[in-house]
Amino acid sequence: MSDLPHCPKCQSTYTYEDRNLFVCPECGHEWSAQQGASDADDGLVIKDANGNLLADGDTVTVIKDLKVKGSSLVVKVGTKVKNIRLVEGDHDIDCKVDGIGPMKLKSEFVKKA
Q1: In which order are the strands placed within the sheet that holds 85-86?
Q2: DSSP track, 21-35
Q3: Strand pairing category for 80-81 and 60-62
Q4: Residue 61: CB partners within 8 Å, gap ≥ 6?
Q5: Among 60, 45, 65, 52, residue whose Cα is nearest residue 94
Q6: Whole-angstrom distance, CA of residue 40 vs CA of residue 8
Q7: What would the pLDDT profile of 25-81 be if each residue is shown by its tens digit?
Q8: Which residues contact 10 (CB under 8 A, 6 or more apart)?
Q9: What CA dihedral angle connects 80, 86, 92 and 93, to 10 degrees?
Q10: Helix (H, G, I), strand (E, B), or coil: what is residue 18?
Q11: Whole-number pLDDT of residue 34
Q12: How far apart are CA 41 and CA 36, in angstroms?
């Protein structure tokens, strides 16, 4: 049986070692051998266009007109989005835009309000 630690993010048992890092093939999480499970579970580090750290529940402002894919709608510059939720992935902000509905945004197109 393997003596490698379980993934601190998804608890997968299929972790492997790559140089000085442990890697989870299921969720893609990487952590160092010196780092404890509590250190790896600090959460996402997502910054806005100005480099400010974002957190769940923050209010952000859109800094560029964003076309909504599959629709003729546009999220205009200056639109405030309240109560954001941070998620992993390319579009790392999950939110609800007034007048449009639920959508995902990239953090590079918003600034903290």
Answers
A1: 85-86, 93-97, 101-105
A2: EEE-TTT--EEESSS
A3: antiparallel
A4: 78, 79, 80, 81, 110, 111, 112, 113
A5: 60
A6: 7
A7: 888 888 876 665 444 445 678 999 998 999 999 999 999 999 999 999 999 999 999
A8: 24, 26, 27, 29
A9: -20
A10: strand
A11: 67
A12: 9
pLDDT bin (cut points 50, 70, 90) of residue 24 is confident
For residue 58, the model assigns a pLDDT of: 94
Encoded amino acid at 104, one letter: K
pTM for the model: 0.63
Residue showing tokens 């939110």: 95
- Beta bridge pairs of residue 61: 80, 111
In degrees, rounded to 5, the angle at the alpha carbon of residue 75 between the alpha carbons of residues 71 and 81 is 125
Task: Copy the structure tokens of residue 41.
Answer: 């579970």
Instruction: Note whether 43 and 52 are within 8 A (CB).
Output: no
